[in-house]
Amino acid sequence: MLEFWFDFSSPYAYFASLEVDALAARHGRQAVWRPFLLGVAFKATGMGPLPQMPMRGDYAVRDWERIARLRGVSYALPEPFPFNSLQLCRAFYWLDAQDPGAAKALAQAALAAVFQQSIPLLTPESVAALASAQGHDHGAVLAALAAPEVKERCRQATDEALAKGVFGAPMLLVDGEPFWGWDRLPMAEQWLAQGGW
Amino acid sequence: MLEFWFDFSSPYAYFASLEVDALAARHGRQAVWRPFLLGVAFKATGMGPLPQMPMRGDYAVRDWERIARLRGVSYALPEPFPFNSLQLCRAFYWLDAQDPGAAKALAQAALAAVFQQSIPLLTPESVAALASAQGHDHGAVLAALAAPEVKERCRQATDEALAKGVFGAPMLLVDGEPFWGWDRLPMAEQWLAQGGW
């Protein structure tokens, strides 16, 4: 199992999302996309959003820009940043229960809107608008985002992340072996290729 | 200028120390070794030693072991860990003012003792013993470690690190461009090779 844990508000997760499927495919695998709420993990580890941390925040902003230039991908921070990705997490797991492919397509569209067009998708309305552009029923999305069982799925996913030691985003679990950070994708790939070492 | 900032108590810095000179040499450059006190940077950024952080600590311990296996290098954590690297920092800058090559040789011997033989070099006596094994006068080392001007050099180096945005170890500054972490050595090398991007 190759799990790709991410938060919709993480630039490093955005960059990883552009690479993870091709990485998996090179080894005949498929990545399972698993959003969770990084803010909950931060509370558990005593961390906080990078931009609010002295020195580390400046480094991260610079690092995101140079990764985008290196990879030649569109990138801009949303405003506000970070934003609460709760509604996106709920929308993802609502779709995922019906059609994982559609959930992943929504996730990709969401990450593009957030990190290419600077649109923070934090309200139910903005998430419903995105989903309806993907062919989903606007009213059904809004109803789903308010449904207790959908809220519960996002909560459970975050609990599962914490139980598996996922404290940051992105984190790849390659048959249980954790690789944290966009910059560890090459090591994760080597692990996949060799079956560990 | 290629600056290699590190703390003698950082496993990631130890792994980087084994690679940084060859990396620099591949591009006709020399790395300037610059120890500093990571604990002071932690206070400035609100961070703490990895082993004391929930989840992140477990990940780091696992990660250090797999990096050692991947690179095929000896590795063991010192006890206690982390340890106060103040005396090593002072010994380094005392020697560095006279003979940078001898200072680097001492640093390499220190990192090997710490991370290959699990010896925490935290007392003046243990540092003097290491230095005398390198051919330095035992009494002169002990005297230097207690000298105000030597203490001041380590303090100034740490101040310089903070002023340059060095919040973690290892950090490479490639003509001022910061690369944080052992796992960013490949990116630092690409920056060196291309002169940035």
Q: Identify the most extensive interface between protein chains.
A: A-B, 29 and 29 residues
Oligomer: homodimer
* Largest sheet data of chain A: 4 strands, mixed
Please work out how many helical segments of chain A DSSP would assign.
10
Order of helices and strands of chain A: EHHEHHHHHHHEEH
The SS-based structural class of chain A is alpha+beta
Number of strands of chain A: 4
Cα-to-Cα separation, first versus last residue of chain A: 17 Å
Widest sheet, order of strands of chain A: 2-1-3-4
Task: Report mean pLDDT of chain A, rounded to a whole number.
Answer: 97
What is the C-alpha radius of gyration of chain A, as a whole number of Å?
A: 16 Å
* Proportion of helical residues of chain A: 55-70%
> Tell me, what's the shape of chain A?
globular
Low-confidence blocks of residues of chain A: none
Please state roughly what percent of the residues of chain A sit in beta strands, choosing from under 5%, 5-15%, 15-25%, 25-35%, 35-45% or over 45%: 5-15%
